[in-house]
Design brief:
alpha/beta, Pept_S33_TAP-like_C, 538 residues, Serine_prot/Carboxylest_S33
Length: 538
Amino acid sequence: MGGLAGILGEHMSIRVRMTVLAVTGLLVAGCTSGGSGAGGTTAAPSAAITTPTTPPSPTAADAKPSAAATLPALPASLTGQRLDWKRCEAPSSGPRPGPEWRCASVKVPLDHAKPEGATIPFALIRKEADDERGRIGSLLFNFGGPGASGVEILPQAAEEYAKLGERYDLVGFDPRGVGRSAGVVCRDDAEQAASEASVDLTPDTAAEEAAYLKDNTAFGAGCARRSATVLPHTTTTATARDLDLVRQVLGDDRLHYFGMSYGTQLGGTYAHLFPSRVGRLVFDAVVDPTADTTGHARHQTIGFQRALDNYLKSIGEDPKAGSERIARLLRKLDREPLTVGDRRLTEGLALTGIAVTLYGQSNWPLLTQALANAEQGRGATLLELADYYNDRDAKGHYSTQSHSQRAIACADSSERPTAAQAKALIPEFRGLSPVFGAFLAWDTAGWCANWPVKGERTTPEASAPGAAPILVVGTTGDPATPYEGAEKMAKELGDGVGVLVTNKGEGHGAYGTSPCVTKTVDAYFLKGTVPKYGTTCG
């Protein structure tokens, strides 16, 4: 998803980074991200959500034939690689991982249809299991995005997975097109800053519309110019095939995997391609595999508005009146951005700052503070939050995660909605959310506008007949990947494969924030205990 995927994408790494970095002073004291703990009382979602307790009946999707790997077999030069694990270097941001972490790189085919041809690096980081005698195998993590660097995030978040690390080697990776795995680069810092400052994400005039589409087209052209070799090969399907090669090189008979947010799409794709090689897989904060570009935008419009409504209820404000208050602030910023030093808080940056606080209920007091400041003409708090989301440091340097995010998303999706189609969505989307609707409607056209590479398909495949049970965890107040996506994923995986676990709470993702979900997932990974379909926490 898009420029709002940039802003509202399936971005579990935000929750992880906010938890890890809250102590740096960027966030106000006590504001770390994450959902409300299970077992406590949570605000009811603004839209009714049913929580099934029995698996869905088998459907045609369940009966799809296995997507056996029909491409040429990988040569022994790849499957027989021996990794050279070395002390990790410091990432572009954050401290150098401790000596218990080791880094290596696997060679994977640039094009899996030509496995004897060119290769690219696939970066890994690993901490070996504490209990060598009780070791189960390797457990691979993907934190979402798409575009999140597992090599950078996993060591920072490792404490959350310490129990799993007793019996698993914890393994993070950079998917192809990300970070150290032939990472895509599309713009320099100056170009990115200029775009943020000048491009209106909800164009109101013909000139603003032309500038919006021109900027998005220029972004894609920059990717093609700077990353021409890897750009056509950044699909989720290709990364899923990379994971199967990594599984072999690590010496595991089956893949054990923890996917969060976009990582659930990657995991579903792996399960579809290699159902017989599925070990213990958990999907948390689940992407709906049945949704197309417009469907995803519609889901996120509903999801973010639902989270905003729950926030407004928590402070005693009527959701309709509170949403209109925030929408008025955004309209005012569209006309007159607030000056913050030598920068400006625009409507788009303000929305980014608002959205990031909705990733976890414990951030809601920060949203109250940021909105109050902006309404009094002080935009620094919202701008700082937007910078945090956009990975912009104090010196004006941006990470390239958003570059990788768009490259992967546009390689995956074959849809290219037009500006006319986006404009036609605005009345509906504004009705769903006066705050987020117009942004997400326009985003359907802007994100992959005139993209230089054709996309692979409309929606991903996730059916995995014959695979071992996969835990599918959905949170009822999740803004970025609404709960309904977990229901759809469990159904698509197939009868006896997808096992739905419901977390009644707020925030993007449940593991580590809901004690009940954490206990359920740990029992599955460590003991192989499969919960009953429809198990509910909270």
